Hints:
Helix 5 runs antiparallel to helix 7 (about 245-275), helix 7 packs parallel to helix 12 (about 405-415) and helix 10 (about 325-340) runs antiparallel to helix 12 (about 405-415). This protein has helices at about 5-45, 50-95, 120, 140-150, 200-220, 225-235, 245-275, 290-300, 300-305, 325-340, 390-395, 405-415, and strands at about 105, 110-115, 160-165, 170-180, 190-200, 285, 310, 320, 350-360, 360-370, 420-425, 430-435. Helices cover about 50% and strands about 20% of the residues.
Amino acid sequence: MAVANEPQETGGARGLLATAVDSVGRVRVAVAITAAVLLVAVLTRELAPLPAVLVFATVAMALAVDVRRAIRRRAADVAESGRGAEAGDLVIDATIAGVPDPVIVLERGGLVRAFNRRAVEVAPALATARPLSFALRHPGVLDAVRRAAEEAGPLGTVRTEMAQRVPTERWWETVIAPVRLPPGPGRPAGERLLMVSFHDLTPLRRSEQMRADFIANASHELRTPLASLSGFIDTLQGPARTDTAAREKFLAIMRAQASRMARLIDDLLSLSRIELKAHVRPETPVDLVLLLRQVVEGLQPLAAERGVAVAFEPPASGVTVAGDRDELVRAFENLVENALKYGASGGRIDIGMTLATAPQGDEVAVAVKDYGPGIAPEHLPRLTERFYRADVADSRAQGGTGLGLALVKHILQRHRGRLVIDSTVGAGATFTVRLPSLAERLPEPDTAQPAE
């Protein structure tokens, strides 16, 4: 993962060139001096031409040997320096590979020297020998790196926090700390680097938000049924103490209110648990066809009670998605149950499944369509908000908590899916779940006529 030190390699090549040029220069000077001596000797007739040539050849050969030795020594020094840089990179890789947090090692100029596998979660475009700003565009982190790199004297640790909004909301504590490699070949004084580590604060932040939301939502939504229960209790203890008919009626209402509070608390806790791990994508293969069969079979008693027929024509082959089975069951149960409650007047619910190619890859679409009264256009954008109801009275009469579609939305977000809602007043509504698919494309329906 680490890259060799490019400036060091460049310096080695330049050193070899300088050595060669220096040696060639010495040869030229020696040749010039020898030629001058020979010329003087010949002119003064104190040295015969043949011995002069031998002297010249001997001097040239000695200088050539000297040049070759000098270049070899320089090449050995450069190779040893390169091995030192490579050893330093191996030390860096071995150090950060076992760190559980994302870690990026930077050179003083801001270039990425190395990074571990988890660092790709923070910056998917990371690449060695490229500036960190190409892969991570958070101003706070880049400013902290700059301050750590520019600080005079021994580097100090710099801390900052970073929030990411896509693909899911996450929070990180970023720590920029100095690193000095031990002295070695190619690093006579020890190389100074910056280690940028990221500690995941998401579970902590989600827990804090979960507690705040739970208190706010519970206090608001539980106030009405608690007030109702208190009123009936006062009535039963007072005027209706001896009224058997009134007591039976009020106890039935109180039981319904208590059941509603239990469902509300269960939905709030489920929503909180899903939000707490929203940044962790499920990876377990789930057979979506089998799951939908079980959901439909489980809701058949409610469908029979309301006189609604549920039609589900599964494909011939299975369709697999990566997900949490229990959460997907909860999502589809909510959608089918909503169709049974609010679209019962249509008398029929159709569940269809198709597979299509999206820009990010193949995805499966499951559509739950009812033929009830439909939903007005102004309500569609807000249906997945917590406690939002298009018809408050009807929702409470059906025993709804106002959290069903919010649960569906958060479950699908965790699975990197989405919910699409289409409706026309008087013509029913269609809720379509789109999830990334792990299966091959569904076979096209056989439209050929049977042979005679």
